[in-house]
From TrEMBL:
Signal peptide: none annotated. CDD domains: HAD_ScGPP-like. It comes from the Bacteria. Pfam families: HAD_2. InterPro entries: HAD-like_sf, HAD-like_SPP, HAD-SF_hydro_IA, HAD_2, HAD_sf, PGP-like_dom2. This is Haloacid dehalogenase superfamily, subfamily IA, variant 3 with third motif having DD or ED. It comes from Bacteroides faecichinchillae. One of its GO terms (molecular function) is sugar-phosphatase activity.
Length: 213
């Protein structure tokens, strides 16, 4: 969802950077992109283990994630990623099932899907942070999506912008397209297991009919 459907990752990276800084912890804006797709708790624990040599308590996790969500929501509403709506219409016309697999647990974004992409997604065909135990890069979120959609890995295509998401899709045995909508080197996405790399959602939309999937 973030970085694929919505151009929201700059806001997420800034919010993560600022909230960690306020707690005396270091998480750069670019590193936030490397953690994209993890659950908030997992991201917090990685920083705590690195900086403090311990896991965060449940209370600390809830406090920091709440503060991060508040900071994120001070930004303007994230716009649709250019090309995303047009691509979804092409996919829908082909009779394919559209699903969202996100590490987000922020209802503010989940509730915006229907407004921004009317008729494209259904709650019962979504996998969020509330549904999974492990989260990306574990394949669990995508394996759960296959189960919810009643489809096999060979019948699915993953579109991801984050290294951890690409890794999760690859581990689930699904053909994974990486769209490099952030500041990371594209090679990072290929090294994570992407079968195909494109520079943007618009590029994916423009070449969709010509892809050999």
């Amino acid at each position: 969802m973030d970085g694929v459907l919505f151009n929201s990752m700059p806001y997420h990276s800034e919010a993560w950077h600022q909230v960690m800084k306020s707690h005396g912890l270091n998480l750069s804006r670019e590193e936030a992109y490397m953690h994209e797709g993890r659950t908030g708790a997992a991201t917090i624990n990685i920083v705590f283990q690195r900086e403090l040599g311990r896991e965060a308590s449940q209370e600390e996790i809830e406090k920091i994630y709440k503060e991060k969500s508040i900071l994120f929501n001070t930004h303007p509403e994230a716009e649709r990623m250019p090309g995303a709506w047009e691509l979804l219409k092409k996919i829908k016309r082909e009779g394919l099932i559209t699903m969202v697999v996100t590490g987000s647990g922020q209802l503010s974004l989940l509730d915006r899907l229907e407004h921004n992409f009317p008729g494209m997604f259904h709650k019962e065909l979504m996998v969020t942070a509330f549904d999974v135990k492990y989260g990306k890069p574990d394949p669990e979120p995508y394996l759960m999506a296959l189960k919810k959609g009643g489809i096999k890995a060979s019948e699915a295509v993953v579109v991801e912008n984050a290294p951890l998401g690409v890794e999760a899709g690859h581990k689930a045995g699904i053909f994974t397209i990486a769209v490099n909508t952030g500041p990371l080197d594209g090679q990072v996405l290929l090294d994570s297991g992407a079968n195909l790399l494109l520079p943007s959602m618009q590029a994916l939309c423009d070449t969709w009919e010509n892809l050999d999937l």
